[in-house]
């Protein structure tokens, strides 16, 4: 006894020290049997005890018997509903316990703890990714003892106490005896205690019950690893693989990893890092779902990208290098060696030999939107469905075979583009979404037929849609309508998934941690047509149940008695039972509601009783008759699993402290027996139950503390079964809905194990004994599409629906189904009765004139790019499609005609060869009449270049023309935005030129933007605005033309050099000289001489100064004094061009008649020179446009400095000298064109100086 006391004291002190030095860490277990990496993290667990050095890597075998002492599971971590309820005082709840447990108890009594549960699933609902294993926990500041209905004592404390339950009204007492076994392991023998929820008493059996055996194994050396992936190889296999890794959240990568393998169902594990490479860091573990002997392990891509392959359940591996980084894998549903791999750069690869060789299937694939072929629907097994993006980022639905997915071999089942991340391939259905004009439309393909638009009620105007289920040849969809924010409406479809009717309004939704939407709708396993949903009504959330796929819903009746046997006063509809419907898609956690197809009628869920769903005062409830009656089984939250195909129930408390007990029930939750699964309390991260269903083995995963190694506890519960079940161990159970035996049109009788029998179910256990069809009644029929159920229960047409329109689109001589307003619930098996009354009647189609003709493009857009295929869709609301002629005029001079509408079902394709706006007209005509419709289609061509033509110098308060030259030219499809001077708003035109008057002297900036389709280009020019100026035309020695590339940049640089050369022969200020080099050859330029803007003298003095400068420059030019060096050895001389078209531009009327005659003669001389010279060499820059109708033409504009434009010059007819005087000031800015030819010609600028 002295040795035991010393041992207890030492352990207690050790645990106290460990508690005070505990720090935070994060750990995770992921589901490796799923096809992706998923994590469950455990944050900052309290360190209670570390493994002894001698314990590392060695299993601890522990035959465990049920504990005797604790009563109700609600107080399993302390006293059963308070020991006082069992007639035992708190002082009497004392007994001897092992030293380790007592030490933990003392620590937990001295410290307070508090924890918060962190949520659920990683990813975005990806079909290719797995789910979290276990639950996440995040330590806040301290852990607090959880509140309980009775005593407030944790399970660790419970080890130092015992209650003495009543045995037939008397007190009974028993103790556990612990003695070391021959192997040094501790044996604990206890008599089993059971708890009955009916009378809240514990009954001790007269003879000892079978025991469960457990063993614990610590993954030595992995205490720092914070993530793990677990895989049980499957039925008839004893192999378990575990990949642990250290994920650095700062680096975002895995820095360490260990791979463990067990061949004895988890009793012992061997580290197999040497088989994959001691320096290889592993990131993920995948298992082939059709052959679980085949394993695929990925290395961390930050170190190397490779895959390790095993075909013997992980006993040996082959390593293969990869040229890409795998993000996710998708295995073929039947071919074990076929795998799809999605890479980090959005490429899809395939392998036909289980990852040894890979080939590219397609690029630019949307994440999580690729699917293997569906067996029985797709003809080719190697067909892949995927959503891929074009170069411009638009998504398409693409199918191809993985061995032949070249561009020519790809198919596009949907004609047009779809919304990104909208493709869903599920069972018989393919769904896509298309958004046009801000409104989403949904399309479905049933059994690979052509896509049809999904018909929702006309004014549902959906904002979002989720496909919930496609079981039993029907689609369940959750639709968020235009006026909903946090709720969705539930809709059910016909067999083809086209016509949807409302099943339930305002279903509650929640948003997961990853942003994924979760609908509070649960489909009960094993019972056809049975759903449970949480509906929000008047700000209250209530739980409803349906037995006929949403045709009728009702509230859940609360239990009549609570756990203690007290009567519950809960009257419908003011009070009812409400359930939490969060399912766990992770096989290692149970979720808040559970059912199993092998245990029909049994539903276990977390919930509360009251007027609405609440997260306070929750408990565990069970129904054994498919939701008709409910019983409370726990007063706190438990995770529930089904053992032995549902014949037994396993419960584990969702505690915020470590636990070491589990509860098992053989009578559908009426009585529970408690068993210990660990000597030391364990933070449970997950429970692996299902893979061992055939072997009666389950595994608990967790940690003793946040610094301890991963603890794997194997539990063999085979011994709790006394024998295999025989015929006498079964009983029949009739499915019903509140006493009504007909559910989904038939009477169903199930075979179930009698509650309380500890026998093991046979493998070939049959669940449904018989199913007899019922006579059809009104409750077997729901409202058809377009009809709504009124208060009297009848289905009448909605205000927007015209029942006659259904018959108007069929062909003469054929039949159509005339709806009665009802349709039988899908999968309902009733016969006769009112079936004939409610079933749609077959009637003959009548000939009708075409009406309601609709024309649209497949993309729903009114624009298309030049040269691309445009697909037009024609739809006729009324009329005989087989006897109605369809004509389509594309508006570009071509048209097509079809003898009937059926020829146009795949769309009418056309390619436009020119840009513009085209009026497309459709005409439907038959012997009784016609109908027509039109749309205006914009065919655009991307603008590649824009050039702004503007005068380099303009006269103040005089109108000038600004012109944008666009290439290629797109008439009527280009929009021009003109930003003038310092304006904050543009002038928007459809024409390429505008007239504008500058009112402020100085440099004015003009910018034009050209918009065509999604393309916008712009050009900018600077215009010098003055009251008057002078100019000279310049020419150059011929050698300059040899180096003229005729590009704007070259002209700008040469203009700057010319200006510098001119300044060297005059002292004129630099800012008053502007040089513009014209495009083309021979190279020519224009020199502008501007007045000094700071000059205070009058205009006459300024003009004299300009004349002086002009004289000086002319003299220098005539003497060949102006020259520049273009490159070493190449000198260019600047000359003055003697002929000119206009005098000094100003506003004075002083001109002589002789000057006018001279000007007129020069004009004719220039035209003669042009006609002679045009056949030899083109001289730029003046463009003369001719037009018959004297409409306003584009004017001639020069280019200077950084611009390519020159001042505008008008060649006008001078009738009289007086008219010429009046127009003289406008000579450069405005006038009429001379009609010379129907082609554009170019002549040089000529100026006359006075």
UniProtKB/TrEMBL annotation:
Residues 180-191 have a biased composition (Polar residues). Residues 1-27 form the signal peptide. The keyword ATP-binding does not apply. Residues 45-55 have a biased composition (Basic and acidic residues). Its main location: membrane. Keywords: Glycoprotein, Membrane, Repeat, Signal, Transmembrane, Transmembrane helix. It is a single-pass type I membrane protein. PANTHER family: SORTILIN RELATED (PTHR12106), VPS10 DOMAIN-CONTAINING RECEPTOR SORCS3 (PTHR12106:SF10). This is VPS10 domain-containing receptor SorCS3-like. It comes from Scleropages formosus (Asian bonytongue). The lineage of its organism: Eukaryota, Metazoa, Chordata, Craniata, Vertebrata.
